[in-house]
From TrEMBL:
NCBIfam families: PRK02813.1. GO terms for molecular function: aminopeptidase activity; metallopeptidase activity; zinc ion binding. GO terms for biological process: proteolysis. This is M18 family aminopeptidase. Its EC number is 3.4.11.-. SUPFAM superfamilies: Aminopeptidase/glucanase lid domain, Zn-dependent exopeptidases. Belongs to the peptidase M18 family. The keyword Lipid biosynthesis does not apply. Keywords: Aminopeptidase, Hydrolase, Metal-binding, Metalloprotease, Protease, Zinc. GO terms for cellular component: cytoplasm.
Length: 432
């Protein structure tokens, strides 16, 4: 398969996925086009060997399952997350200052704030409406044009702006939205956009979860197009590569792709990795296709392996001292095994050995990241899922720059590298 075609699919996925709800919907569309059947958690499931199914929770987390053709005895799991740091509207967002309607925001996750200034911002998310007949419905909204901006203060009025000035998200980051407007204008615009995008006319907006998005489209960058620049590479790139691997696999083995919401805020939710979503689904599947009972479920989990995919910190050419000298992953140098002695990453020597063997088998270069001993370390869904489920796990990811910025950068070749290894993992006959 052409690497350029895969990268075009990635760029399209990034464009169509400004929020976790949109990302989940985009993945569901591809799964259904490939023959996956949607399951509803509130209904009785009837599963067959060799079938391909998927289920969502909160419309922002998704689990896709490739059921084995033979008895269910082990699963090859790929984990990722659908959410990214950013700015989300407060429930009563409308506020006025100096003749402008602004929208109050909350910071979601550990966002880099400075890059949000002076960007063309759109608006996207989920809106719940009540129809004239009393029916309540949730619909996706994506305003794909610049409707707001957070203007910087001129350096003439803040001579210390380049000397590490702190940014106050409450008082300095409310996007400018409409000159001379007020709260009724926000309500009017929401109804206007719902009519334009969904043909909804006689509805009442009950509530919403909306976020600002960068309107600069994802792009290939560099003289030879060796870079990918986009919003939300962390962690939609992993969602994409996991989905590509599942769809390109030979379909013989039991495989799972789980993409959870809320990783950037700790994963503690009904649809997050610390919640019961994955365990609920696997227990229902095992009850029909595996060894019945709690002992049978534990045997299934211990025979399975999880590769938690979340992007890794690449060596920055302007800040090389921020990496351990022996552990500086480079862009386009292959996927990165992430290691932390304090279990911020779930990798151990046994699970790392499996991944290294997969890389050898697929002729993919592999790198290792360990944070400096005098710096803190982030985490992923890997340790959380391993703790909740007990499945042997490792953490890997494509290297990237500017993690948690409004625009991040990754290597174009690493997309192919990671997809190739994950596909081999899903197809692997025996797990060590």
């Amino acid at each position: 398969m052409s690497e350029d075609a895969r990268l075009e699919r990635l760029l399209d996925f990034l464009r169509r996925s400004p929020t976790p709800w949109h990302a989940t919907a985009s993945m569901a569309r591809r799964l259904e086009a490939a023959g996956f059947r949607r399951l509803e958690e509130t209904e009785t499931w009837h599963l067959s060997p060799g079938e391909r199914v998927y289920v969502t929770r909160n419309d922002s987390s998704i689990i896709a399952l490739q059921l084995p053709r033979e008895r269910l005895s082990a699963l090859r799991l790929i984990g990722a997350h659908t959410d990214s740091p950013g700015l989300r509207l407060k429930p009563h967002a409308a506020q006025s200052a100096a003749g402008w309607l602004q929208l109050g925001v909350e910071v979601y996750g550990g966002a880099l704030l400075a890059p949000w200034f002076d960007r063309d911002l759109g608006l996207a998310g989920r809106v719940h409406v009540r129809h004239a007949d009393g029916r309540i419905e949730g619909v996706l909204l994506d305003v794909e044009r610049p409707v707001a901006i957070i203007p910087s203060l001129a350096i003439h009025l803040d001579r210390e702006a380049n000397n590490g000035r702190a940014i106050n998200a409450q008082t300095q980051m409310a996007p400018v939205f409409l000159q001379g407007g007020g709260r009724p204008d926000l309500e009017r615009l929401l109804n206007q956009w719902l009519e334009e995008q969904h043909g909804l006319t006689e509805v009442e907006v009950l509530d919403f979860e909306l976020a600002f998005r960068d309107m600069q489209p994802p792009a290939r960058v560099g003289i030879e197009g060796e870079l990918i620049a986009s919003a939300r590479l962390d962690n939609l790139l992993s969602c994409f590569t996991g989905l590509e691997a599942l769809l390109e696999s030979d379909g013989r083995q039991g495989a799972v792709l789980v993409a959870n919401d809320h990783e950037e805020v700790g994963s503690a939710s009904a649809c997050g990795a610390q919640g019961p979503f994955l365990g609920d689904v696997l227990r229902r599947v095992n009850a029909q296709l595996g060894e019945a009972g709690e002992e049978g479920f534990i045997r299934l989990v211990q025979a399975s392996r999880l590769i938690s995919c979340d992007n890794a910190h690449a060596l920055h050419p302007n800040f090389q001292d921020k990496h351990d000298a022996a552990h500086g992953p480079v862009l386009n140098g292959g996927p990165v095994i992430k290691v932390n002695a304090s279990q911020r990453y779930a990798t151990n020597s046994a699970t790392a050995a499996l991944f290294r063997d997969l890389c050898r088998e697929t002729e993919v270069p592999v790198q290792t990241f360990v944070t400096r001993a005098d710096m803190g370390c982030g985490s992923t869904i890997g340790p959380i899922t391993a703790t909740e489920l007990g499945v042997p796990t490792l953490d890997v990811g494509a290297p990237q720059w500017a993690m948690h910025s409004i625009r991040e950068t990754a290597g174009a070749r690493d997309v192919e590298y990671l997809t190739r290894v994950l596909t081999a993992f899903v197809n692997r006959d025996a797990l060590p």
